[in-house]
Amino acid sequence: MNKTPVAHDLTCENTDALEKDSPVGGNAKDVIPSVQVLSIDVECVATGFSHLDRAPCSVAIVNDRCEILFDSLIKPDKPIVSDLFPLSGVRKADLQQAPSFDDVIKKVHSFFTPTTSIVGQSIMSDINWMQLEEGIHYNSTIELGDEFAVFDPRYGNKKYFSLAHEAQILLQIDLNAMGGHLARNDAKASIKLYNQYLRVRDQMKLEQARQTLLRSPTKIPPYRRLNGVYEKVCLSAFHRGYCRCGQSLINELHKQADKKRRNNSNDEKEKLSSSTNKKLKVIDEKTDK
To answer: For every residue of the chain, which 3-state class applies, written as one string?
Structure first.
């Protein structure tokens, strides 16, 4: 994989750049404390022409000390239509000898525990790609997009920022320095943002960061620069105006999944309530006798 130059690292001790750390050695279980904060990032290639036709091609896990615990390419089990290099930072040739998804996911799961808190941007996408289950692999999530979102009086609505914008403005790190993201760099940027603004929650500092993000001009993201298409593949999974395939957007799918989970939860509560009421009725009838 080609290395991506990045700006000076402001938050990790004894490092000069995001890229500089090597993966932590040893067994995963030897480096995981009982309670931990991890960031995970997954990059994808296209296996079809819609923005939903994706397969993981790389994954990285970083702990809250900015150490790379795991960093691996992934060989998709479907033919690759495009490597989506402007987004993934990976070339097709890089994946020819990469381990399989099944091999990688076993190693990924070994780093997570039921008490893990996962930090990231659009983190549910990464969680879903790596088949992480709440209560088994993690306890909670910290969604950076929500944490840094701020009301924009100019348009009268809440504004969300990309990880690239947050890293550029708040960390002075250019995640698009070579045109493509690397999973390890995105994961480290997420942890740095967490360490600086969310580990010890200072609302004044956090609000200042939000206002700084709002005031700062944003760079044109790759999907806009490429007008929503790269090698005939739709790139816009989050912005309807640049979607070229007409499929549901990722945030729409997440809302549908959340609604389904809430409905299922309510159904279970109703069943439990009904069962409890029946038991109480039986008890009352026995007591009356």
So the answer is: CCCCCCCCCCCCCCCCCHHHCCCCCCCHHHHCCCCCEEEEEEEEEECCCCCCCEEEEEEEEEECCCCEEEEEECECCCCCCECCHHHHCCCHHHHCCCCEHHHHHHHHHCCCCCCCEEEECCHHHHHHHCCCCECCCECEEEEHHHHHCEEECCCCEEECCCHHHHHHHHHCCCCCCCCCCCHHHHHHHHHHHHHHHCCCCCHHHHHHHHHHHHHCCCCCCHHHHCCCEECCEECCCCCHHHCCCCCCCHHHHHHHHHHHHHHHHHHHHHHHHHHHHHHHHHHHHHHHC
271 pLDDT more than 70: no
pLDDT attached to residue 178: 64
pLDDT digits 0-9 by tens, 115-173: 999 999 999 999 999 999 999 999 999 999 999 999 999 999 999 999 999 999 999 99
- Looking at residue 14, its pLDDT comes to 36
C-alpha pair distances (Å), 198 with each of 32, 37, 48, 154, 264: 21, 12, 38, 27, 32
